[in-house]
Amino acid sequence: MTRTPGFLLLSLLLLSLVSLAISLTHGSMALDVGQVWAALWAPDGSTATQLVRELRLPRSLAALTTGALLAVAGCLMQVLVRNPLADPYILGISGGASVAALLAMLAGVSGNLLTGSAFVGALVAMLLVFVLSRGHGQWNSNRLLLTGVVLAAGWGAAIGFILNLSPDSSLQRMMFWLMGDLGFARANALPTIVLLVGLLASLLLARQLNVLTRGELVAGSLGIRTETLHLIIYVIASLLTATAVTQAGSIGFVGLVIPHLIRLLGYHDHRILLPAAALLGASLLLLADTVARTLLAPQQLPVGILTAFIGVPLFLYLLYRGSRQ
Amino acid sequence: MKLQLEQLQLQRGQRTLCKPFDLSLEDGQCWGILGSNGSGKTTLLHTVAGLHHDYRGRIVLDDTAIEQIPRKQFARQAGLLLQTNEEAFPGTALETVLTGRHPHLKAWQWESEEDLALARETLQQVDLAGFEQRNLLTLSGGERRRLYIATLLAQQPQLYLLDEPANHLDLRHQHQILGLLQQLCTTRNKSVVMVLHDPNLAARYCDHVLLLHEDGNVESGPSEALMTPEKLSVLYGYPILHVASDAQPLFIAG
């Protein structure tokens, strides 16, 4: 197995581009690469141009960004709570966003106002975990994890309650939101900016993250202010998650599995792991979304179903291969 | 470098671990900390390593209280080997050793060729040459212990603080590693403070010892003066005999 980080990152970049090409050419109307190219760089008034520029491209870019956001947030959460089972939603941030979003839907709100309420819900959940897990001022991964998991269960109950109150007509839309869906996502520069800033900030901390995975005492004895570092990781991971959830609902699996896939390939250094996870997360989500909107066309499936369908066998294969080495 | 503990007092809840004591440690000295289970040896070591702040008295490194020293700078002066390590996401041996270079690198800086060479050299020093790409999970307890010691060596501090460095090591490696630490003191003028459970290892490798009694009394000084069967019997609450041997004193449980 090659361990050249440059090779890995280049391959993953290529994978994202291939995924983008597949996504832009497939759909209700099949286009060839030449048509897509023309639509992108020499737009005319044709249906192909409209299809690519107004529907497929914004949705594909949203998928790429969301996948990358979730994968990076997953890496950070796993380091923060020192638990390989952690994913971006483990501390209930998506739960808070979902409750707010469903309430907004119940009130008949849509568009930017819906997105805005989801983001506010995510921030409320984030603050709640933070305040409740502080205890006597000492940061403690276990306490943080337990507080988050219990709050997430509370949000889950609230979601069930709202679903029970809701009229049938809005249920399907709510289910799509809960399973994760990119159908609502619009072209918006903000998530991309959050992703780039978050990724850059995490990369600056990457060597500290390497040390932190070795334990808080080790990190402390190697000159790291662990309390401050925990706080920074928490804020970055939460904002990335909040942005992803706001954009596309709670898409499962990407944030949990992508970091492990990269680790199973033999890369534990966060300076490689973080960008590699971002690229792989982006590709996986884009491919899953392409399948979700074409498999049973014209019917669309929530993308969260497809991320698991693609991710589960891929992960099990790598796990099996790893255990034989 | 000079480490001074001034009227240091350690408390855990209602229990007094150490009554106020003074200690002065200079370059080239090798100290052993002895005491029974739960007497506070680890707490004392961690406190000196700057990981606990709830103590009374002062810990002074070269005329500066350790709280005043920036954490990263302090990590270049003092390094710590923990009694046990819990890795959340175990990587390779080389990746682990390289974390020891962290305090020497800037935030955005990658390990240089020199750092890599140093990491390989320290692996060699603990008999782990050729283990660079092995995952931690595939190492035995003793191999992992030596890996963590290599990580501490790669950190290149002036003051080495070690919590039971001989743990999990076979007889040969116990002596090899402790000999290596002793050599750091004698030939490179570094200082070592280590918690040990075996008085024979302390007698052989440490020129000074600190006896941490269960009642919180602290005795410290040159090994020859303190390493007597009488004092050790009191320390451990168990009769300890002295057996004359050709090369060195030998303590056995009575």
Automatic annotation (TrEMBL), chain A:
Keywords: Cell membrane, Membrane, Transmembrane, Transmembrane helix, Transport. It is found in: Cell membrane. The keyword Coiled coil does not apply. GO terms for biological process: siderophore-iron import into cell. One of its GO terms (cellular component) is plasma membrane. The chain crosses the membrane at residues 62-81, 88-107, 113-132, 144-163, 183-205, 217-240, 246-265, 272-295, 301-320. InterPro entries: ABC_BtuC-like, ABC_transptr_permease_BtuC. One of its GO terms (molecular function) is transmembrane transporter activity. Signal peptide: none annotated. Its main location: membrane. It is a multi-pass membrane protein. Belongs to the binding-protein-dependent transport system permease family. FecCD subfamily. This is Iron complex transport system permease protein. It comes from Thiohalophilus thiocyanatoxydans.
TrEMBL record, chain B:
Part of the ABC transporter complex HmuTUV involved in hemin import. Responsible for energy coupling to the transport system. GO terms for molecular function: ATP binding; ATP hydrolysis activity. Residues 3-239 form the ABC transporter domain. It holds the Pfam family ABC_tran. It comes from Thiohalophilus thiocyanatoxydans. The keyword Translocase applies. This is Iron complex transport system ATP-binding protein. Keywords: ATP-binding, Nucleotide-binding, Translocase, Transport.
